[in-house]
Design a protein that fits this description.
This is ATP synthase subunit b. This protein has 3 helices and no strands. With about 170 residues, it is mostly helical.
């Protein structure tokens, strides 16, 4: 260190100081402005890029929120449509069951009426046949009993006795 201090030259120091001042003036006049402008432009570009990135991030969040909302609405609409379809299906099934029940009851009533009608017709025919047979039997019995005079007299007496007892 002593060697440096002993070799110090004022002339060399003066010219170095002048060269340094000229260099700083030249840099300030010609290079400092463009460097500062480039740094400012770069800083502004970075700030714009950050702002754009932030805006894009917010827009993506908004789009995702919109997508979620649209998806939820679509799901709700789908669920409502499915519920409506189920309700319509259940109503159609219930209506078909009710209609089938009504038709079945009508058919049963018609069958009962037809059976009753057939039964009444059969009963009437049976009564008619029974009455015809009864008349035929009575006629044959009366012909047998009334074939001679003594039978006729005894029948009349029996009938008179029955009438007196009642």
């Amino acid at each position: 260190m002593e060697k440096l201090i002993n070799d110090f030259s004022y002339g060399l120091f003066f010219w170095m100081a002048i060269i340094l001042v000229i260099l700083v003036i030249l840099l300030a006049k010609f290079a400092w402005k463009p460097i500062v402008e480039a740094l400012n432009a770069r800083e502004e570009g970075i700030a714009n890029a950050l702002a754009s990135a932030e805006a894009a991030r917010k827009e993506m969040q908004n789009l995702q929120a919109d997508n979620q909302r649209i998806l939820q609405e679509a799901r709700a609409e789908r669920d409502a449509m499915i519920k409506d379809a189920r309700d319509i299906r259940e109503k159609m099934i219930a209506d078909a069951k009710a209609e089938a029940q009504t038709q079945g009851e009508k058919m049963i009533e018609q069958a009962k009426a037809a059976i009753e009608s057939e039964k009444n017709a059969a009963m009437a025919e049976l009564k008619s046949q029974v009455s015809g047979f009864s008349l035929d039997i009575a006629e044959k019995i009366l012909k047998n009993e009334l074939s001679d005079k003594a039978s006729q007299t005894s029948l009349v007496e029996r009938m008179l006795d029955d009438v007196k007892l009642n």
